[in-house]
């Protein structure tokens, strides 16, 4: 964008004439980074936005965080606002793997680089980078841990995330790949609960009523798992049902400590949110990210009762 280039040239010229003053001004005037996440009422997405904003401010940018709550129209309007505000870069957790492509293209056409975090879009070559958890690796890690809790024939149910998010299918497929190797484990029901605790609670109530003899619940994220735990508690069944989660949220970690959740798979959201902003800064300054591929995978970690005390802050596990 010509305005952006002109602004940078002006700062550079000032730096040559008044190096000390201009250096201070540049540090305060690196522009805006717009951060768009899903739902800040969810601790995972709240941390995602918080870390990205703090990193941007540390690097000398103005930063704002907005949430689309999975709605592509809201997301599109937020992209429009970022364009109007002449953002230097956009950090985006997309609302929909296919439905967000148009919004990303709109930003790119306006000369604003986009850095995708957490959830992918189904098109390569638009975003400068897509930084996501290695969901297949994390799902396999969780499923292997979960399967170890059972002897004999077991019936279980699954809580599935939002179908518009590729992560939901990737995790479910990862679970199936591992659990299909255990002929004693039979999935008797699967329900979409859209990453939401209340929906997890309601869907768990329904599945429990239809399948009162289940012994396990495997969930696509912690919020749905925590909803299931509430329903199982209410039914007096939590002591004999094994629940597994995914995210590594503070509430899930507390549930692991309390013996209510068998484990959670920690996504390194704090790490890749910070990295996305650092890459954005590098691109703003040099025009390049230095990456050899657009998609960057970050391995997940398992939190169980054996290592839960190493969880030092939201979504961080010390090794």
Topology:
Elements: H1 2-17, H2 19-28, E1 32-37, H3 43-58, E2 62-67, H4 72-84, E3 89-92, H5 101-109, E4 114-117, E5 129-133, H6 135-147, E6 154-160, H7 166-179, E7 185-192, H8 197-210, E8 216-219, H9 222-234, E9 242-247, H10 250-257, E10 263-266, H11 269-286, E11 295-298, E12 301-303, E13 311-313, E14 316-317
Parallel strand pairs: 1-2, 1-3, 3-4, 4-5, 5-11, 6-7, 6-8, 8-9, 9-10
Antiparallel strand pairs: 10-12, 13-14
Helix pairs in contact: 1-2, 3-11, 4-5, 6-7, 8-9
Describe the 3D structure.
With 319 residues, this protein is an alpha/beta fold. The chain has two domains: 2-133 and 268-298, Response regulator (Rossmann fold); 135-266, Response regulator (Rossmann fold, 3-Layer(aba) Sandwich). It is built from eleven helices and 14 strands. The protein has helices at 2-17, 19-28, 43-58, 72-84, 101-109, 135-147, 166-179, 197-210, 222-234, 250-257, 269-286, and strands spanning 32-37, 62-67, 89-92, 114-117, 129-133, 154-160, 185-192, 216-219, 242-247, 263-266, 295-298, 301-303, 311-313, 316-317. Helix 1 runs antiparallel to helix 2, helix 6 (135-147) packs parallel to helix 7 and helix 8 packs across helix 9 (222-234). The longest helix has 18 residues, at 269-286. The radius of gyration is 22 Å and the shape is elongated. The model is unreliable at 1-27 (pLDDT under 50).
């Amino acid at each position: 964008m010509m305005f952006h280039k002109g602004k940078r040239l002006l700062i550079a010229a000032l730096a040559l004439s008044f190096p000390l003053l201009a250096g201070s001004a540049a540090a305060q005037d690196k522009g805006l980074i717009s951060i768009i996440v899903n739902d800040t009422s969810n601790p995972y997405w709240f941390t995602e936005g918080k870390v990205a904003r703090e990193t941007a401010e540390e690097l000398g940018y103005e930063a704002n965080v907005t949430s689309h709550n999975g709605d592509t129209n809201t997301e599109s309007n937020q992209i429009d606002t970022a364009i109007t505000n002449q953002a230097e870069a956009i950090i985006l957790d997309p609302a929909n793997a296919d439905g967000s492509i148009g919004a990303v293209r709109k930003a790119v056409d306006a000369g604003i680089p986009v850095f995708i975090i957490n959830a992918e879009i189904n098109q390569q070559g638009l975003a400068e980078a897509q930084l996501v958890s290695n969901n297949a690796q994390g799902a396999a890690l969780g499923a292997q841990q979960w399967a170890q809790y059972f002897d004999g024939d077991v019936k279980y149910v699954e809580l599935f995330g939002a179908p518009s998010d590729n992560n939901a299918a990737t995790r479910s497929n990862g679970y199936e790949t591992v659990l299909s190797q255990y002929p004693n484990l039979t999935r008797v029901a699967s329900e979409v609960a859209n990453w939401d605790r209340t929906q997890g609670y309601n869907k768990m109530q329904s599945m429990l009523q239809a399948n009162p003899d289940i012994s396990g619940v495997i969930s696509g994220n912690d919020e749905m798992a925590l909803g299931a735990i509430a329903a199982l508690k209410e039914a007096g069944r939590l002591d004999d049902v094994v629940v597994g989660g995914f995210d590594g949220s503070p509430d899930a970690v507390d549930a692991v400590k309390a013996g209510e959740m068998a484990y959670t798979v920690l996504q390194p959201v704090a790490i890749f949110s910070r990295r996305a902003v650092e890459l954005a800064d590098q691109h703003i300054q040099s025009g390049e990210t230095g990456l050899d591929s657009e998609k960057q995978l970050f391995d997940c970690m398992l939190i169980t009762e054996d290592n839960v005390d190493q969880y030092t802050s939201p979504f961080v596990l010390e090794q």
